[in-house]
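User: Sequence recovery, please. Input:
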């Protein structure tokens, strides 16, 4: 039987897409090869968010082609549609295909790839895409070009998928979309969808990424805080703390609006889940073209004020087709690194302060893996926890443990 292997780059959305490609290929008679070198067909599910992500894929594809002349190589994902990529890689790639057209290349039948039952890589945590694409067109971002316009999946289909996962024993459902707040299906918005999933019987957690501050409604804040199964974690990317830069990024909100949201989220958690801890994370881009040192300090100020638990920093990377591509990338690499370091120092302080609140508390932890005598798991607030224990077979279970120590990036606990 022919063998396949998939290399995935980029975000959770791509990981989820690869899970669907894997099950589709297995239905076509392919079996999984442990390494690319052993496969007859290798699928590169690519990411174009930054140049570094692109380069990683190019390097691996060239490498594979050099060593294995006969392997069939498919390039899909967020680089598949780019003309410059197709030209650059045409000698080494056999087929370029958008993810949604993937099935069409194997069978004549037209089918919606989101209907394919995924081959989940994990037995207790599952990604469930609720929408794909993006209509926001932030000036730096390639996603609207790479993935096209927003398409929401029918709520019934999502509910069925979650129900089946819970029956199989899944404990953490992660709803995915570039902009989950814009979800809509026949009168069902994201808040209503969350409420529906929250009523599915079983002991499981619900979380979601990503949210956009412009569309983060009061109804949603209340829903998150009220729904018992929805985790006490909000990932709300701000990108910049400076209003002028936010405007040039086409984000359509201000620093004041963002900080107002954070305040409302905190108040709602305190009101509806007074005994719970909660966490807030974000994305920040440093060195957007024209960002002055002073403007950058507004991002630093927001990071301080919002007391983030986690921030994914990224140095601005010019992306073809986007509006910011045409603006001179005038912040030096050295300065971008310096700004990242400043944010990292702030994050270390706010994260440590937040983590200290956990010490002495007995809380739920989903155990993800075990190495020797140590279990590694996550809290409902997405904090990593280490637990030393001789108890057997806890992986995939939600257990209660007492937090004994707070570090910068993780917690320690004991039973
Ligand atoms: N939809 C989400 C939002 O609006 O926040 C983000 C999705 S994007 C896949 C993930 C992150 O990549 C963004 O939040 C942003 O910080 C970062 N990113 C996107 N384009 C970038 C670029 N050109 N350079 C650097 N970072 C970028
Ligand atoms: Fe990109 Fe903006 Fe869409 Fe997020 S909302 S995917 S940053 S264009
Ligand atoms: Fe994700 Fe990268 Fe595409 S971050 S949506 S895989 S460009």
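Assistant: Recovered sequence (415 residues):
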């Amino acid at each position: 039987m022919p063998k396949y292997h998939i290399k995935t780059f980029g975000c959770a959305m791509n990981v989820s897409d690869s899970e669907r490609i894997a099950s589709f290929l297995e239905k076509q008679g392919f079996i999984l090869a442990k390494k690319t070198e052993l496969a007859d067909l290798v699928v590169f599910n690519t990411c174009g968010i930054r140049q570094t992500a692109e380069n990683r894929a190019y390097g691996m594809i060239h490498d594979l082609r050099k060593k294995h002349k006969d392997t069939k190589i498919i390039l899909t994902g967020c680089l598949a549609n780019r003309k410059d990529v197709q030209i650059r890689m045409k000698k080494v790639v056999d087929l370029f295909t958008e993810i949604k057209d993937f099935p069409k290349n194997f069978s004549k039948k037209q089918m919606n790839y989101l209907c394919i039952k995924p081959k989940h890589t994990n037995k207790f945590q599952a990604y469930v895409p609720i929408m794909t694409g993006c209509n926001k067109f932030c000036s730096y971002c390639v996603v609207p070009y790479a993935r096209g316009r927003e398409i929401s999946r029918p709520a019934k289909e999502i509910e069925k998928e979650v129900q089946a996962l819970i029956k199989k024993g899944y404990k953490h459902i992660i709803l995915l979309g570039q902009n989950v707040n814009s979800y809509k299906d026949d009168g069902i918005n994201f808040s209503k969808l969350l409420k529906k999933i929250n009523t599915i019987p079983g002991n499981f957690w619900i979380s979601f990424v990503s949210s956009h501050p412009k569309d983060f409604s009061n109804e949603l804040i209340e829903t998150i805080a009220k729904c018992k199964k929805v985790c006490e974690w909000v990932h709300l990317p701000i990108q910049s703390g400076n209003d002028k830069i936010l405007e040039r990024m086409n984000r359509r909100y201000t620093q004041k609006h963002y900080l107002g949201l954070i305040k409302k989220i905190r108040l709602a958690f305190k009101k509806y889940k007074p005994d719970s801890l909660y966490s807030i994370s974000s994305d920040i881009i440093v060195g957007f073209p024209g960002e002055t040192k002073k403007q950058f300090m507004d991002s630093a100020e927001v990071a301080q004020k919002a007391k983030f638990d986690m921030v994914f920093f990224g140095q601005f990377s010019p992306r073809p087709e986007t509006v910011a591509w045409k603006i001179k990338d005038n912040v030096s690499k050295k300065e971008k690194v310096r700004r990242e370091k400043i944010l990292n120092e702030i994050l270390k302080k706010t994260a440590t302060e937040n983590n200290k609140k956990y010490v002495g508390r007995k809380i739920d932890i989903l155990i993800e893996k075990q190495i020797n005598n140590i279990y590694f798991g996550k809290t409902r607030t997405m904090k990593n926890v280490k637990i030393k224990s001789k108890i057997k077979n806890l992986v995939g279970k939600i257990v209660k443990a007492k937090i004994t120590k707070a570090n910068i990036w993780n917690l320690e606990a004991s039973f």
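Residues 48 and 54 are 6 Å apart (CA to CA).
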